[in-house]
Give the backbone structure.
Amino acid sequence: MEKRYNLLTAIAMVVGTVIGSGVFFKAEVVLGRTGGNMMTGILAWLIMGLVMIICTYTFGIVAGNYEGADGLVGFTRASCGKTYAYYVGWFMATVYYPSLVSVLCWLPARYLGVLIGGEEWGNPTSAPVMVLSVFFLVSTYAMNALAPRLAGKFQISTAIIKLIPLGLMAVVGTIVGLGNGQISYNFTNVVDPSITPTVGLFAGVVALSFAYEGWICATSIGSELKDAKRNLPRALVIGAIIVVAVYVAYYIGLAGAQDSAIMMENGEAGAKLAFQSIFGELGGVLIFVFVVISCWGTCNGLTMSVSRGMYDLAVDSESKRLAKFRSVDPATGMPANSTVVGLLVSGLWLVYFYGANLAPTPWFGPFCFDSSELPIITLYILYIPIFIKLMSIRQLGGFKRYVMPVLAILCSFFMCFATIYTYGIKVFFYFIVFAVVMLLGALIKGREKL
């Protein structure tokens, strides 16, 4: 493909795909899981950021050594073969992308409900909020299926918009907090000392996997990037460092804007209170509108991927059972069948997300898990064979051949350990669900040659 992108474009793609709704959603979650311990919370942001930097750089090495391969499935195919790539692609199309889309269509509905206010709209599990979640889900898929150019322009616009509230809170919140002593107070007072730093740290890291996810999408432009062997690793690392800096600055800004106890008590509504305390009633509301738009933009970005999930599997497979997903609508240029399946699967995950995480009484018993976190952790497990394969490339120097892949593997094991430490037996029940989904993928694949 044409070498059309430079280093700056690649860096912007990393930053744009990672920064989105997770930073707004998980900042309050980290406060809660660490008991309001600001130092532990910042350490969690930094550790998860380091994991991202190591893994992004290692994937940059992978990308530079498999000419013509793009994205996670492409790298998996080039390094580990088509069969393993099929299962990775199946996981992405049926679990990873749609489960995240289900959360991301609820988030703008939740934050819009916070803006509207009132008992019903302010309740994250209320019927109006869930109906609005369905609206965001269906309308986003409709936009991608019927007007893909509009969806692309919407994605570019929201990528710019999402930086406005983050930048304002990071700068103004920190300045105000240093002046009035709010930052000092939050850093020296732990809201819930019963939560030990170790428990809070691991729980915070697992929560932040959601906020730091999305960087793997930036590897899809490898074949279109000028001097990709050099520029893709640089773009991934520089972009990751920018993301970490923005996230930590925003988290500190929140500490300067509002008391941690109030933030923890109000959950997602805490962010609105923080913006209003700094920018006033009207200013806080206006800026919070950007938060809603940012969350919708992130939902749109993941929808763009899941709409193409089954199509990507089909075009890379000779399986007759997947042949129907190779069709492309001549009017829109979109894979219609793949988009419909993506919508249906995302809808099922939205039902699961409500029943497992929002409903007053959980619907699925021991099979209830946080679908915004555990599928992401699974991805780190799927990375490991790719990292191992990288160590067999003899032309690489010792640093790229051994040091970085080993560090990346250790990061993957660390994420697994942190998840087990945080969730315990729930991880076992999640992997039962994962195994069933993979078995379904095997049945659909059949014995057809891939």
